[in-house]
Amino acid sequence: MPGRSKKTEEKQALQVWLEAGRTEDILERMKDRPAAINTLVSMLFQDDPLLMWRLLFLLGPLAQHKAQNNLEGVRNQIRRLLWLMNDESGGIVWYAPQAVATMLAYVPTLRREFARILGSFLGEDPFEEGAHWAVARLATQEPAKLTDLIPRLRQSLDDPRPLIRLYAGMALPALGETRPADEQVLHDEGGILLAGMDAQSGRVRQQDLQSLWNETLFDAQAQWMVGLWSLSESPD
């Protein structure tokens, strides 16, 4: 179509692959592009949370690949995402905490520099859920930098939102605390159904809160990460 920019055409092609679940093709196409991370971050505004998580989980391998020759470039990408979590930026990216944590999971050199910053957003709207996911994700990898968040995570066990309680409950044992009792996390809502996908296989499933609380959603090697969302967020 006349007048369409190459960037627009590329995003449209990526969107088609994203909807088809062709994440490996996206990774192969984008891994050597200097602006690959920026391009995917600009596409995070997805109505379907499944597509959003597919994009987020691509950021980790892309950051890992870029860091091999341009660690400073990855550092600047993370700084930019953190800036976009600031009201002064004028361009808030709601899923920035998950994006930063996913990149840090694959680029260990930068964890000590940035992991703790994500904890400062545990109580900041609209980032609470994403920041709790990020802290739970990184608690398995960089616990020493996050132990000062323990009091705040304990408070989160009283949050009315089940995913925030779940992530707080998972982060606390990784930080050396006793595993919270089931009732502290479940709040009589163990039967609530959630949807999720894991980063390694792309498998999508529906699972209740009780079952999720009893399984491992993250590991220390970055291969196993699960993105969750309420079924009410999914499009009809």
Separate helix tally: 12
Instruction: Bin the helical content.
Output: 40-55%
Q: Strand count, sense and closure of the main sheet?
A: 3 strands, antiparallel
**Rg, Å, rounded:** 17 Å
Mean pLDDT: 93
Structural class: mainly alpha
* Multimerization state: single chain
Q: In whole angstroms, how far apart are the ends? A: 31 Å
- Strands side by side in the biggest sheet: 2-1-3
Number of strands: 3
Report the portion of residues in β strands: 5-15%
Low-confidence stretches: none
Query: Could you say which overall geometry the principal axes of the C-alpha atoms support?
Result: globular
SSE order in H/E notation? Answer: HHHHHHHHHHHEEHE
Could you explain the architecture of this structure?
The protein is 52% helix and 7% strand. With 236 residues, the chain is mainly alpha-helical. It has a three-stranded antiparallel β-sheet with strand order 2-1-3. Helix 2 (23-30) packs parallel to helix 4 and helix 6 packs parallel to helix 8. The model has no long low-confidence stretch (mean pLDDT 93).
Task: Give the arrangement of secondary structure elements.
Elements: H1 6-19, H2 23-30, H3 36-41, H4 49-67, H5 71-83, H6 96-106, H7 111-119, H8 128-139, H9 150-156, H10 162-174, H11 182-186, E1 193-198, E2 204-208, H12 209-213, E3 226-230
Question: What's this entry about, in short?
Answer:
The chain is mainly alpha-helical and 236 residues long. The chain contains twelve helices and three strands, in the order αααααααααααββαβ. It has a three-stranded antiparallel β-sheet with strand order 2-1-3.
